[in-house]
Design brief:
Two copies of one chain form a homodimer. Chain A is of the alpha/beta class. The first copy, chain A, has two domains: 9-79, Winged helix-like DNA-binding domain superfamily/Winged helix DNA-binding domain (Arc Repressor Mutant, subunit A, Orthogonal Bundle), CATH 1.10.10.10; 85-200, Rossmann fold (3-Layer(aba) Sandwich). Chain A contains nine helices and nine strands. Chain A has helices at 9-27, 35-42, 46-54, 68-79, 94-100, 104-107, 141-148, 159-171, 197-208; strands at residues 32-33, 66-67, 85-90, 110-116, 126-128, 132-136, 152-155, 176-179, 191-194. The first copy, chain A, has a seven-stranded mixed beta sheet with strand order 5-6-4-3-7-8-9, sandwiched between helices. Chain A has a two-stranded antiparallel ribbon with strand order 1-2. In chain A, helix 2 packs across helix 3. The longest helix of chain A has 19 residues, at 9-27. Chains A and B meet through helix 1, helix 4, helix 5, helix 6 and strand 8 of A and helix 1, helix 4, helix 5, helix 6 and strand 8 of B. Chain A binds a DNA duplex through residues 8, 10-11, 34-36, 45-48, 50-51, 53-54, 58-66.
Amino acid sequence: MGKSSGIPEPAIRRLSFYLRQLETFVAQQERTVSSRQLGDALGFSDAQVRKDLAYFGQFGHPGIGYRVEGLIVRIRRILGTDKNWNVLLVGMGNLGKALMSYRGFAKKGFHIVAVFDNHDRVIGRRVDGPQRLIVQPMEDMEQAVKTLNVRLAVLAVPAHAAQEVADHVLASGVRGILNFAPVALRNVACAVAAVDLAVHLEQLSFRLGGGGTSPTP
Amino acid sequence: MGKSSGIPEPAIRRLSFYLRQLETFVAQQERTVSSRQLGDALGFSDAQVRKDLAYFGQFGHPGIGYRVEGLIVRIRRILGTDKNWNVLLVGMGNLGKALMSYRGFAKKGFHIVAVFDNHDRVIGRRVDGPQRLIVQPMEDMEQAVKTLNVRLAVLAVPAHAAQEVADHVLASGVRGILNFAPVALRNVACAVAAVDLAVHLEQLSFRLGGGGTSPTP
DNA sequence: TTTTGTGAATTGCTTCACAGCA
DNA sequence: TGCTGTGAAGCAATTCACAAAA
């Protein structure tokens, strides 16, 4: 199995960018937008934009373009962000705390409804975010996933713990993982998205082609 | 201009993942690794691994594989992370503070040597990280870039300010940007890497295919 | 044997170019 | 005219498959 829809994965990624740009256009009172305008704003060709959108339906109007508000609604529906998602967060270190106070999640309909850690020092503590939550021990996860209808987990744990935590999270019934730990998760039969700052920094470093200073110690 | 080296961009991205995995292997006392082992750990084919590495040189030994430590050194040199990089950080909100206390930057040789904001409330304040720094006003940026030999900037500013800040940062002599704001930067003649959590969440949501709960308000 | 490095074949993605509609 | 949607063409990336090396 794997690859089934026939829609290129890059096209699905770009859908998110189209949505983001359309939200900018709507804030600028734009009513309609052409594939060329949308592409120019994002650095894609007009043909690319049309083909990508056409994978999902006929949203445009010849001679007019795409109606901005309508297209936003359609793309949200395609991506599944027209609905709310309950999310759990594992790991209450620096990164976990920062993510708790990050408003971007809720703005997109992703609500952190439970937080977990395995350190006695933090279990039972209250953490402030959009909601106030109590840090729970890992054992309580399965219960929380069921009662709160959780489908997504955010992993903000150290690299050495990530695989074990991922296994636990999966066993608790979670279906998708947003992984901030700099390791590749193995044998996780679910959707995984990874955020690794080191990777981005390395790409920048490569493209700047040697402008570093002293050798790293 | 654009695209010149003949090396596929995806191959350059994967180089970062190879490096990360090799660092895991070295921690496990592995001396050599085959393209198959490396690929399996990351979900790539063995042929992919060999072809990617071959773009940059002949690092392997038939019948043996790749020497882990040696390959790490070679990849670091290719990516430019065998040297230190001085980095400036713009925006001292929640995200900026979280990034200041993130050890992953320094671990890879990226050192935040100056921080900026345009709010009087935070300018002049001390922020703690690997080093203690004073938040500077935007006007002082050009000076700092020159005296500290800065080539990279991290943007942790609100979306509505990102374009303006990017222009300013570029004008100050910075050559690459790591952008955390959820907007596409336009007309920035430099290397740009973007981190957008919303995009990752949307990709997960899409792949889970409608398991959200109530409609978003 | 095992495993690399690499041309050839294949797959997949993007761009082209135009019919059709407003 | 302006713009979409789409088959065909072109290009880029991946996989195949094998000679050569240890």
